[in-house]
Amino acid sequence: TMSVIHFLQDALQAPQQAAALLGLAVALTGLLYLLVDALSYRRIPDLDVPLTDEEASEQLQDAELYTPALQQPGKIPCYDPSSMQLLGYAKAMTPTEVREVIAEAKEAAKVWRSSSFSQRRLLLKILLKYIIAHQQEICRVSARDSGKTPLEAVLGEIIVTAEKLSWLLKEGEAALQPSRRGAGVMASYKSARVEYHPVGVVGAIVPWNWPFHNIINPISAAVMAGNAIVVKVSEHCSWSIGYYGRIIDAALAAAGAPPGLVCFVTGYGDAGHALVTGGVDKVVFVGSTEVG
Predict the structure, then answer these.
(1) Are 292 and 285 in contact, with CB atoms under 8 Å apart?
(2) pTM flag (> 0.70)
């Protein structure tokens, strides 16, 4: 009788022990995943991007107010739309200068098209890490150049951009893998598939409303697909590209990417025309149908 009771007790305890062991295994696996993820995050290079006094200051002191009389030949006046405080000037690039930038990007594209997906992901990880760690600076510069509130900048510049980079890190390589297509009954003896190859240099013309997200969006997609890119920013929001351009340059260097892989153009309509007609292999345009 006692042996039967012991057998029943062992049988009842066995599922409980198995469940406990399973729970312990799951917990250890979770901790291991978090540890590996933390170590991987620490291995991502940190960027040191200096800020100018105007970029670092919470408020501009004694800044001159912008008026049309302050316009200068060959330059784009930059000012805070919310306060009309003058921020400085950006270069109004000539068509010849734009074509020179495209030529530089073409040389970088020849190198980057052979880059591994691992290197492309590293570049995006470096950008994402910097964005998360420097949200305040990015939003301050965006708000000052576009006139939006800091809260709007957080929503439109940080959250959306971080999500785009996260998606590309998780899904980008898989989305660019060759995929087979059915040839149909009449051509069943044939096979077909779709392959994706870098196009070369992408030209992008972006608007003023989200100065950070509007450049990172096409940049991240272009470089993940193995392309170089030249971005023309809006003449209504050209001051912020000074800081944002330094972020990109630092990230390219940290990832071992070729110089000129990502270039920026500042200017008016003639610069935009030179970009789309100057030899780029694909054009991305963000804006209304009327403007386009």
Answers:
(1) yes
(2) yes
